Amino acid sequence: MEPAVDRKAGIPEVIDKKNKGKSILNYQPWWFPNFSSKRTSARANFKRFDSVQHFSDHHYVLKGNASKQHSRTWAKKIQADWKILEKDLPETIFVRACESRMDLMRAVIVGAEGTPYHDGLFFFDIHFPDTYPSVPPMVHYHSGGLTINPNLYNSGHVCLSLLGTWYGNTRENWLPQESTMLQLLVSIQGLILNRKPYYNEPFVGTKWTPLGEPFSKGYTNAYIDGAPVGSIVKGTSQGGSMKFRTEVAVFMKTVVNEFVKLGVKELQDKLKPPPVIHTNTSR
Questions:
Q1: How do residues 168-208 score in pLDDT, each as one tens digit?
Q2: Which CATH number applies to 7-200: 3.10.110.10, 3.40.190.10, 3.10.300.10, 3.40.1010.20?
Q3: Phi-psi category of residue 162: left, alpha or beta, with phi > 0 → left and psi -120 to 50 → alpha
Q4: Which of 102, 126, 152, 159 is flagged as catalytic?
Q5: For residue 196, what are the CA distances in angstroms to 6, 192, 219?
Q6: Which of 22, 26, 131, 235 has the highest CB neighbour number within 10 Å of its CB?
């Protein structure tokens, strides 16, 4: 189910409840969540839209191959999507197209301020089928086996009318002559990763009522309480095992170095030595 998004969450109200729940059609580039100037400065050094040569770990890598022939309509639509994404992507969505496989794309959506997903990174693999844009693209969410939202299954399934994976009226569904990848990504951010994800549940009778608020709060708190597990950030009340945190800290050096190679600045100061595991050898 796709609820209206509260503007307090830092995301536009992309569904008009008074107008039969119409979804986004005319996006605006000022619909961006607010982030601190320091983080914005660091993010500005990293291209929001770019291309990579290969996607060997892409969920849909076996759906086709580089030599497969596609129609001119298919190619022109994807190229048009690329141009729109390059020009209008908000600062909280990052996209990489694939040079060797035009049918593949990957997106990272940053959780908006004011939502339980604030500053979280959510990865989506995208595949453009042969009949695109007559049909919507296929989208897979990298869940890690976890369920964090009623519309994002632990199997990777994304529930959204724009994808044809949920019920919706004509204007909420994919429209070949109007719908774009930018619209789709902003819809995922605004309609799914919103301030009160509990209300994404279909057929919730107490939706947006005082009776429903305790359930909504409980759902949100359950996610927030679970999010810090495995965190290596100082001051967190929870965490994974010391072994897990040590391995993550070591891996972070590799991740930061790769981002620096891509031109991201202000990250070197984030590198810290991993925590030391103290083993008690006394018997």
A1: 777 789 999 999 999 999 999 999 999 988 888 776 666 65
A2: 3.10.110.10
A3: alpha
A4: 159
A5: 9, 9, 8
A6: 22
Residue 98 annotated in active site: no
- Segment of 105-119, 199-213, 223-237 carrying the highest mean pLDDT: 105-119
Q: Which residue has the higher pLDDT, 145 or 257?
A: 145
Residue 254's Cα: distance from chain center in Å?
Answer: 23
CA dist 145 to 141, 152, 228, 236, 247, Å?
10, 11, 16, 23, 20
Residue 232, SS3 per DSSP: coil
Which runs of E-coded beta strand occur in 1-103?
49-52, 93-98
Contact between residue 199 and residue 192 where contact means Cβ atoms under 8 Å apart: no
Contacts (Cβ under 8 Å, ≥6 apart) of 13: 4, 5, 6, 7
Based on the number of CB atoms within 10 Å of its own CB, is 104 exposed (0-12), middle (13-18) or buried (19 or more)? buried
* Residue 88, Cβ density class (10 Å: 0-12 exposed, 13-18 middle, ≥19 buried): middle
Amino acid at 151: N
Range(s) of the chain covered by CATH 3.10.110.10: 7-200
Q: Per residue in 56-96, pLDDT tens?
A: 899 999 988 777 889 999 999 999 999 999 999 999 999 99
How far is Cα 104 from Cα 250, in angstroms, rounded to an integer?
Answer: 31
Place of tokens 């724009």: 162
Question: 157 or 66, which is more confident?
Answer: 157
- Find the Cα–Cα–Cα–Cα dihedral 61, 163, 190, 216, rounded to 10°: -100
